[in-house]
Model the fold of this input.
Amino acid sequence: MENKVKFKIGEIEFEAEGSAEVIERERKEFVDILLPAAIDAMIRTKGVHYIPQSDPTKTVIDAGMDVPQLPPLQAEQVDYSRESLASFLKPYGLLTDGDFVLLSAYFYEKKNEIKNFSVETIKSYYDEARRTHYSNYSVLISQLIQKGLIMQQNENKEYCLTSTGLQYVESYVPKNDSEEKKAKRIKKSKSTKSTSVYSEITADDLNLNNYPTVKDLQSGKDQIILAMYIITKENKGEWFTNVDIDYIMSYIFEVHITVDMINNLFRNNKSWFKIEQDDVNKKSVKRKLLSGAKDYAESLIKNIIQ
Done:
């Protein structure tokens, strides 16, 4: 039996006819591609701020029954002078750290007409929103740059949203209830397992052809130092907790190490590392390479290449 679906959202219309599978496929394409593009066009041409509360097209399709016309888009002009960061972010629900930074930067660009922001500015976003600080801001910034959402603006390490970043924010669709609950469960699980801040980095991000193969080195000490050096040299981060080291050795460099190997390295080479309290886990510390460790890594590379 042929089904027919037709509805209108403001000035945006959708109509499909066929089997339930065909209609669902066309509905999904409409929601994922056409509707966001239409909303983005309205934002750019009419200067409105639109926050969809859920998928307006999700419905049970009865055979031969038209879908009732839905209400117009809820669009309104935002008075940023009367908005705080917390009130602006509230409708967006649960946010990843990357999305939090993008939306916060967008808010202050609109409110204060200041496009540039720095690491210290990002930290102030976290403070104002009373959000737990991210453990490695250089990694977070690097990920946003790689995605083309922000770019470095000047030599003072200030950044700004790219046109892609602006479009991403202005067409951002908040998670629905089920997605938010799932994200919360994932976040809780990751927090419980102390997931590394380097979990989004892969071997392809590190230009490993420029370095010796880490797992070919004979000692665990050499393997760990070279791995930390490569991450630092490729500007993917500079601070490492024991959890970070365990992660990058296992999942990026495919080397098995033990907790004792990590602890022995730090205990026997204290002058090689700067130590600070971890921002996320106050019972843990993080370390970064000092000149002694960097010199040692560079000597390893030189001796192997020769």
